[in-house]
Amino acid sequence: MKKHIPLKKFSQNFLIDSHIITKIVELINPKSNEALVEIGPGLAALTKPICKLIDELIIIEIDKCLLERLKKHSFYSKLIVFHKDALKVDYLELFNKKNKLIRIFGNLPYNVSTSLILYLFKKIKIIKDMNFMLQKEVAQRLIASPGSKLYGRLSIIAQYYCNIKILLHVSPKCFRPVPKVDSIFVSLIPYTDYFPYFTHNIKVLSYITNLAFQKRRKILRHSLGKIFSEKVLITLNINPRLRPENISILQYCQLSNYMIENNIYQKYIFV
Question: What's the Enzyme Commission number for this chain (predicted)?
């Protein structure tokens, strides 16, 4: 089979380490009765071994050349193929076709991983779990705690929705071409029974965190000053002189709920 030349515009780094591939398949632990969706199958490093364990796999691949390569494999008959940008796929349609929660996995391109994860959170009610290979810094941002330089809007929204676990650290040597950064394989499991955080409306929480972290070096009194007076922040037991990275997820939820309960969110956001 002709060698595939990785395309920079799709940020392609293909997993080639057989030990890591085996470990990832074990961690995903696919079952035949599940609705599995792979984003970016690439050269089929995960696709091939997973197809040995299940009868059907939905794949989303933007690169037409890679789809042509997949057609030459014996397991192709097990694939339901979407030649699309993963950010433009109707995941609700996939859920409705299977009538069951979907499991999503993949080696995500570094250039779209954050926007794709945030996009998938909007579909969280139809997702059973997500297992992704990510750039190390993105994975660390997902699990970052208040006070960390990596703690930000992604940390808050991700931890609001999911229990996140780092499953595997992966060296650049496990990919071709070799990336300049380390990678981490993570699991994101949406909360279903126990919810550690609560806001009346996630759009308001998203708006507040976006506003705060746009000016992350400024103290809250300035970055959120157009919404919350210093007096309100003190009333909510939030120090107005702290920076956005020093405020907990619970406190951001508190701010969100204050906006909603006092009917002031409508000035700033369409809900």
Answer: 2.1.1.182
